Amino acid sequence: MLNQFNAQVNRSEAPQYTDLTKFNFDLKPYIHFKLQNNCNLYIIEGGSQEILDAKFVFDAGTFNFSNINIPKTTNTLLLSGTNQWSSKQIHEQFEQEGIFINLTCGKKTATIHIQCLSKNFAKALPLLTDILSDCVFPEDEIKTFTTIQKHQIIEQLKRSDVQADKIIKEYIYGTDHPYSRFAMPELFDNVNQVDIMDCYQQFYCFGKCNIFISGKGLEHLELVDLLDNHIGKLPFTNQDVQYIKPVLKELSTVKETIYHNPKAVQGSIRLGRPIVNMFHEDFFKLRILNILFGGYFGSRLIRSIRETKGYTYSIYSQILFNIDYPSFIINTEVSKPNIMPCLNEIKRQMDILHTELVSDDELKLVKNFIFGTFLNELDGIINLATIWQTYILNSIPVEYFYRSIHTVKTITPEDIQKVAQKYLNYQEFYELTVI
């Protein structure tokens, strides 16, 4: 078979080039239902294999907690046992039916993620219903988890890169902002069964749940009735959580070197600043500028600081997509003698973008990279469902997707220069080096 394939391919000719800037992108629509308890259900049918991906999303993130280890522990221990099932029995039951389950806790939401064959989804629901209504959080499970987590974080905090990531967010947002809070090890000493049960009752048993399901073969499952007979009978209130609206600290000019480990041979450099939120007219232009500057392997920072100067193996810039408070971060690790030369080169690359227009060829390459990323994100029904989940949970109109596509297609070198002059000013970045 392989020889037959090779015989059909002329390897002396390059593959046909496709200009992705002329590609038409589209979002397949979802179907929306409400269960009897007003729980929102979003379904996207498609795919080539009869598999099902289900995400049960709760407003149970860390945002409103001063001790973020409480919601994180609650989410992680949802499979720790109920009055009917032990932790071992729960895991064995899911494994026996080939059901993969993953638990995650973010800033504003926490998720129970299930993947399985479409025909086996019905077998997961009775157990999931029990988990969402009768979890007991045994003391021994809490102690084991918190002890392991505490020691892992203690070890992580010995690393300069972890310290740098933690401190740069404190510079940008302030030490008590929801986006800068860190799971400090001593906070696990204050995690107890009472607080975990309160979090569970408030945000899972009587909280708000959005369900996102994608896959093939869903029409044979009578999916809405199936969910209504299990999840639909749970006493969710489905009321929106009122999030604190923290005030962002005033931008200052902190330039600091912290000697975390004087014997270290390298330092972790972080540059960061707050930027406009994703609904601002400059935001998507900023995303394109980020890709060009340090967001992919052919970026300005990679070509200059990695390939030409040889200061580091990896350097990149990124936009942290916090819905209300995004930030622009530059990350790298360099040997101590190269710290100042590296910082000077980063500044020089920013200044170049202020004074010199990007070439049409470089901008076209960046556009094709971005569209390639779009194609990857839209490849497959599960990825598509993830995009819709982001849009729905953050109240982003679908027009935003098409405006983003239009911005990439029409942005000019002059636009890039204006955005760089506005947001890539070195003196407006917090500068941190942790050694």
Count every helix, treating DSSP H or I runs of 4 or more residues as helices.
15
Order of helices and strands: HEEEHHEEHHHHEHEEHHEEHHHHHE
* Main pleated-sheet profile: 6 strands, mixed
Low-confidence stretches: none
Range of strand content: 15-25%
What share of the residues lie within helices?
40-55%
Question: What's the SSE blueprint?
Answer:
Blueprint: H1 2-8, E1 31-34, E2 40-45, E3 51-58, H2 69-76, H3 87-96, E4 100-105, E5 110-117, H4 121-134, H5 139-156, H6 160-173, H7 193-205, E6 209-215, H8 223-228, E7 255-258, E8 266-274, H9 283-295, H10 300-308, E9 315-320, E10 327-335, H11 339-355, H12 360-377, H13 381-393, H14 399-410, H15 413-423, E11 430-434
Parallel strand pairs: 2-6, 7-11
Antiparallel strand pairs: 1-2, 3-5, 3-6, 4-5, 8-10, 8-11, 9-10
Describe the structure.
With 435 residues, this protein is of the alpha+beta class. The chain contains 15 helices and eleven strands. The strands form two sheets. Strands 1-2-6-3-5-4 form a six-stranded mixed beta sheet, sandwiched between helices. A five-stranded mixed beta sheet has the order 7-11-8-10-9, with helices on both faces. Helix 9 (283-295) packs across helix 15 (413-423), helix 10 (300-308) packs antiparallel against helix 11 and helix 11 crosses helix 15 (413-423). It is globular. The model has no long low-confidence stretch (mean pLDDT 92).
